[in-house]
Amino acid sequence: MFVYKDSDKVKAIHFGSLGASTYLEHKDKKKRDNYIKRHAVNEDWSSVNPGSLSRWILWGDHTDIETNLKDYLKKFNIKKY
User: Fold this and answer.
1) What is the reported pLDDT for 81?
2) Can you point out the beta strands (E) in 1-81?
3) Is residue 55 within 8 Å of residue 43, measured between CB atoms?
4) What are phi and psi of 73, to 5 degrees?
5) Are the CB atoms for 79 and 72 separated by under 8 Å?
6) CA 25 to chain centre
7) Beta bridge partners of residue 9, listed in sequence order
8) What is the largest CA-CA distance in the chain?
């Protein structure tokens, strides 16, 4: 779950799939590439939503969740609170 402040409202977004492995766990670039290709058709990765959270945090450029989270916050200009 991703919790952040948007204007004066606190919002929570659930994302990912319980029990599923991601790039963070398996570190398999081929699986990562396949995930990206498979989901690119139906997802909006340009706004804050469950799809972009999965893409950029769980299947991001790094195998470290903290690094991916930091990149996500910067990408969408979200301040930690």
Assistant:
1) 59
2) 2-6, 9-13
3) yes
4) -60, -40
5) no
6) 14
7) 6
8) 40
Token readout for 60 is: 């991001």
State the DSSP string of 2-17.
EEEEETTEEEEE--S-
Q: What is the pLDDT of residue 6?
A: 85
pLDDT attached to residue 79: 85
Which tens digits make up the pLDDT trace of 39-73? 999 999 999 999 999 999 999 999 999 999 999 99
Q: Which residues of 17-44 are buried (b: 16+ CB within 10 A; e: fewer)?
A: eeeeebbeeeeeeeebeebeeeeeeeee
DSSP β-ladder status, 9-13 and 2-6: antiparallel
Q: For 69, which DSSP code?
A: H
Report which DSSP code applies to 56.
I
Model confidence over 11-39: pLDDT tens digits?
999 999 999 999 999 999 999 999 999 99
